Amino acid sequence: MPSVKLPKKSTDTDMTPFVDIAFLILSFFMLATKFKPPEPVPIKTPGSVLSQQLPDNNAVMISVDSANRVFFTVLSEKDLSKFDEIIQGINTSRGLNLTKEEMANFRKTYMVGVPFAGLKQLLATPIEDQKNLNQPGILVSDSLNNELIWWIAESKKAFAGQTLKYLIKGDAQSKYPSFEAVLDALKRNDEYKYNLVTALEDVPPGSELEKANKTKK
């Protein structure tokens, strides 16, 4: 009985499709990744031992630097239209006569630290040049004209029907009057809950928190 010889097949695998997939995945992450923009002012926060991830959406961050300057930041990566609603509300309520281009620039402005009188100049400045501007801070020292009140009010309107978180990031060297003015602006808008942004430190050895963490494990 004659033997049947089976044809030999190559065991080599064509890796070309896999290389194409790898490049597609790499391109996706390069285009989709969003890096945190550099902060225009350095703020050294006090330390804490509890860790909680900061929200990147539906939040407002109010920063106070070591010179007691107050800055306002909107965190809304998922819905950029919130930026438009806030700046349009500010423009209308305060009569600032901002142009469409200036209001559109608010989406890219990471921190606002100027009185309303200087907002037009800030938003007219290209994003890459804003870091060179010396922002004096939002006007909060006068309790009768605390401009932070308006920023918070317009944020509440823009995020109406949604949970809006308030974050306060204060430099360890900042003075209490500035912090008090920030709290006053929140209270004037009937907002009494906020989170303090701190630098994460190790749990002190032998503390009650360390014992509680060991118990959970």
Task: Provide structural commentary.
Strand 4 (165-170), helix 7 (176-187) and strand 5 form a beta-alpha-beta unit. The protein has a domain at 56-200. A four-stranded mixed β-sheet has the order 3-2-4-5, covered by helices on one side. It has a two-stranded parallel sheet with strand order 1-6. Helix 2 (81-94) crosses helix 6. It has helices at residues 16-32, 81-94, 100-104, 119-124, 127-130, 148-158, 176-187, 208-216; strands spanning 47-48, 59-64, 70-75, 165-170, 195-196, 199-200. The protein contains eight helices and six strands, in the order H-E-E-E-H-H-H-H-H-E-H-E-E-H. With 217 residues, it is an alpha/beta fold.
Quick recap of the structure?
With 217 residues, the chain is of the alpha/beta class.
Main sheet strand line-up: 3-2-4-5
- Cα(first) to Cα(last) distance is 72 Å
Largest sheet: 4 strands, mixed
Mean pLDDT: 80
Given the helix and strand composition, which structural class is it? Answer: alpha/beta
Helix and strand element order? HEEEHHHHHEHEEH
Query: What is the general shape?
Result: globular
Assign a percent range to the helix content.
Answer: 25-40%
Percentage beta strand: 5-15%
**Which stretches are low in confidence, meaning pLDDT under 50 for 5 or more residues running?**
200-204
From the structure provided, what is the oligomeric state, counting identical versus distinct chains?
A: single chain
Radius of gyration: 26 Å
Summed up, the helix count is 8
The tally of beta strands, per DSSP, is 6
